[in-house]
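Lecture notes, unit on protein representations.

Consider one protein chain, 283 amino acids long.
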Amino acid sequence: MATFTIRQAEEVDLLLRGAARTEIMPRFRKLSGTEIRMKTGPLDLVTDADEAAEAMITQGLRRLFPGCLVVGEEAASRNPALLGQLADADLAFVVDPVDGTSNYAAGLPLFGTMAAAVIRGEVAAAVIHDPVLDTSSLAVRGEGAWEHGTEPVRTELHVAAAVSVSRMTGAASWRYLPRPLRDIALPNLARVAQIWDFRCAAHEYRMLAAGHCHFLMFHRLMPWDHLPGWLLHREAGGYAARFDGSAYVPGLVEGGLICAPDRESWQALREALLEEGKTDLLF
């Protein structure tokens, strides 16, 4: 597999930071009603900031990496066929210009800008930027995961130590869980110590990779929402797999995902949350 360098990841980070400063933060808490629109429904929003930031990032990526495929969330919404090109592209980028658009549109400072580089079906690098605090978390395959702010001081990221299921904290997004799996999972969430849902995968993955929680659980797996965080978590030492135990790879949009500190924790959490009558693994 061709490699993606740390320097290249930092160049992508600069693109995201530039879009945040130019297109996202100037509009924050200043959007009019016409600048916020529904896509598929009231829980699926797009704003002028999403579209302008994605256009800026896309242009920058094509300038830095001529010939690359860019699969942005808003572009894929207009042209779903873009998703089918992701797995076979020599170099592709997935981009989520404003992850947590509902929070952003409501004026809540809990949103992020994300991108991941994919080389012939393998996630090679990831950047998750917080426009409010102007800090970023980065990962390069085989090079680890780290965080830095405006100063080039690198803080290495490591997942939390493994604990029993009853002591785990994390985020669980159950909105897209199909029945009867939803009927099993919802009562079982009481088996962990604490759960939340920030409506923002960017911040949830950053917390996970920095060791501030133990797990994440999702069902729908749109690549711009999960490829950056999946690699960040992996390079910080974590283990993730789909609900059936198979690997998560670009192009898959269903099948669920559980992220945990290690394989054993993943197995215990999967059994505790998604199987009925599993109480022997909690303590």
